[in-house]
Structure formats: C-alpha cells, structure tokens
Amino acid sequence: MILQRRNRILRQSLAIRSMVAETKLSADDFIVPLFIDEGSDTRIEIPSMPGYYRTTLDLTVEEVKELWSMGLKSVLLFIKCKDEWKDNTGKEAWNPDGLMQRAIKAIKDAVPEMLVMTDVALDPYSSFGHDGIVENGQIVNDPTVEALVKMSISHARAGADFVAPSDMMDGRIGAIRQGLEAEGFSNTGIMSYSAKYASCFYGPFRDALDSAPGFGDKKTYQMDYANRTEAVKETLMDIEEGADIVMVKPALAYLDIIREVKNSVSVPVSAYNISGEYAMIKAAAKMGWINEDKAILETLTSIKRAGADLIATYFAKDAVRLLG
Ligand code: PBG
Q: Residue 69: how many CA atoms within 13 Å on its side-chain side?
C-alpha cells in the first residue's frame, strides 16, 4: 500500500509515544485523603479499602512528612468522630479542640507548606449519619448551612488552607465565603464539591468513618446520576458564590461530567477518585484479574484526560512511586 498518512508512525517507540502523549500525570495533580482517629500509635486497615488506613494523629503527622518528601503537596482531612459526641446538630464539628482542629494544627506545625484541605459536612458528626440537620425526617437546608459556616470558620481558625464543603446544601458556598470574610480569613480558599452525585460507590468510605446514613439515602441533597446539565448549573452557581476550585464526584462513572464541567468553567476542576473506585481495582487485582499498577495509572490518566486539573485519590502514593 502507498498511504498518504500513517498514524502508527507516532506510536512506534516509547520515545515518540512519550513525546506526543497528551496527558501526563505528576505528583502536582494529586490530593491525598487522610482518615484520622482518636488515640495514639494505632493504624487500622479499612476492611473494604485494603492497603488504606485510619491512623491516629501522631502517625498521621509522620505520614504527612512522608507525603511531602514524595512531592505530594496537599492533603484532604477526614476524621472519625466517637459515637458519644455525635448528635443531630453536629456541634462537635466546630469544637475548637476537636480532632479535626487538632489535626489541622499538628499538620501545619509539622509541615507548614503542606496544603491542608478539610472536608466540611456534618455526616461524621451526625447521629443520623446525614450531611445535614434532620427535622421531621427531612434534611433541613438553612440551619445546616449555618452549621457548615461555623465548621468552616473553626477549620480556618485552626489553620486550614482550603475548606471543602461536600454536603450539597443550597447556598453554602456563598454563606461560607461571607463567614470567612467576616472573621478575617480572607486567605482561606473554598474547594467546593459542586457536582456530587448520590452514589453507591461511597460505601467503603462510610465504613472508614462509620458514617453511613441511619435512615433513607442522600438523594434529596446529592445529585441524581441521570443528570448532566444540572452539574453545570450547580458548578456555575458555586463559582458565582465564591468557590475557588470546583469538584466532580465520583470520577469514573462521571468522566463525561468532568469534561462538561471543564468546558464550562474557568476555575480549576478537581475530581474525586472515590473509595468504591479504589476498592474495585484492589478487589480485581487481588483476584488476579487485572494488573493493579497498570490499572492505577490508566484510571488516573483517564480522569485527567477527561478534564480534571486535580485528582483526590487513595492511589496518590502508588502513582508517584509508579511515575518515579
Ligand atoms: C461526606 C463525604 C463522603 C465522601 C467524601 N465526603 C461520603 C458521602 O457523601 O456519603 C466520599 C469519599 C469516598 O467515597 O471516597 N460528605
């Protein structure tokens, strides 16, 4: 054959493939979620997230030092709240001496340059396991937003660089921005979980924090996975209200949403490669059905290629090792 154009020319060696690769992962892309527990010198493997741990604060600080040494520059903190401190108001969430607030301080003291982002939602602190305050079986929006503002201010006061509201209440980004401004935290950023879907893939995370909803589901606040246009509406509203970074969550069953959002906004877009996505790769690898290392890189590359500027992922350390 005499062909005018041969596409395989650009694929014939590693050298040419890496020169023309459109998407490249690096440590700068990743946000590392950390699960923190009360106590000392203990790490507990999360059964549905093999290889991932909930650790006490002392060990978390050691982990953060290691992450920094690997070039990972941001962490996203989650804490496990003791049952006896949970109630319907979620007030432990803004306790100035709470585990989250102590964790923020300890991490910023140990590694001041590490970007500390904090999950803002009531579910770990709620006796109902919901992201908001419950009245007559309903998750009430406006009282919840007031609680989220208090929570965000207390994180900022402890030294958080970004608060990351993951609750999907209406109007919370604007209220949090105003609350931060009023308290003088003009440098604290907001990474909003803007398009967060009601997903079955959060299951392992809820095991990690013991935060599964006690009744019903989260469909009156998290989005319906049938919808795409709505993700753009939610995201644009969050940007208008003051979100510095927006997020699509989950990532893998939502790559089309990531692209749609990326094409619609001019702020950085993050995506959360969530617990169930981690668990699926781990489980298939354990069965010997896929190659774990290759699956990690292919998955993370697909999320970046879809349009994510940042990826929150439990595979961050693995990825850095594999890229190294
Ligand atoms: C809490 C929150 C959840 C996740 C992050 N923040 C769970 C939920 O909304 O039920 C999920 C993260 C993961 O599955 O990895 N609002």
A: 7
* 47 token code pair: 């059964």
Average pLDDT over every residue of 271-277 = 98
What residues are labeled active site? Answer: 196, 249
CB of 121 closer than 6 angstroms to any ligand 1 atom:
yes
- As a whole number of angstroms, the distance between CA 19 and CA 146 comes to 51
The per-residue DSSP string of 158-225 comes to: HT-SEEEE-S--TTHHHHHHHHHHHTT-TT-EEEEEEEEB--GGGHHHHHHHT---SSS-STTTSBPT
Query: What pLDDT does residue 207 have?
Result: 87
Residue 125 binned pLDDT confidence (cut-offs 50, 70, 90): very high
User: Kindly report the CA angle at 30 between 319 and 52, in degrees rounded to 5?
Assistant: 60
Q: Is the CB of 202 inside a 6 Å radius of any atom of ligand 1?
A: yes
Indicate whether 1 pLDDT > 90: yes
Atom of ligand 1 nearest to the CA of 78: 6
Domain 23-323 is in which class?
A: alpha beta
Read off the pTM: 0.97
CA dihedral 81, 87, 93, 99 (to 10 degrees): -30
Distances (CA, A) of 256 to 231, 276, 304: 11, 18, 12
Q: Could you tell me if the CB of 123 is within 6 A of ligand 1?
A: yes
Mean predicted confidence (pLDDT) in 52-65: 98
For 22-31, the pLDDT digits (tens) are 999 999 999 9
Q: How many angstroms does the Cα of residue 212 sit away from the middle of ligand 1?
A: 10
Which pair of tokens denotes residue 243?
């979100």
Average pLDDT of the chain to the nearest whole number? 97
Q: How far is the CA of 205 from the centre of ligand 1 (A)?
A: 6
Quick one: which of 15, 43, 140 has its CA closest to 89?
Answer: 140
CA atoms 136, 141, 146, 148: torsion sign: positive
- When pLDDT is averaged across residues 184-210 and rounded to a whole number, the result is 95
For β-strands 115-120 and 43-46, DSSP reports them as unpaired
What is the number of the ligand 1 atom nearest to the C-alpha of 202?
14
- Look at residue 211 and tell me whether its pLDDT is greater than 90: no
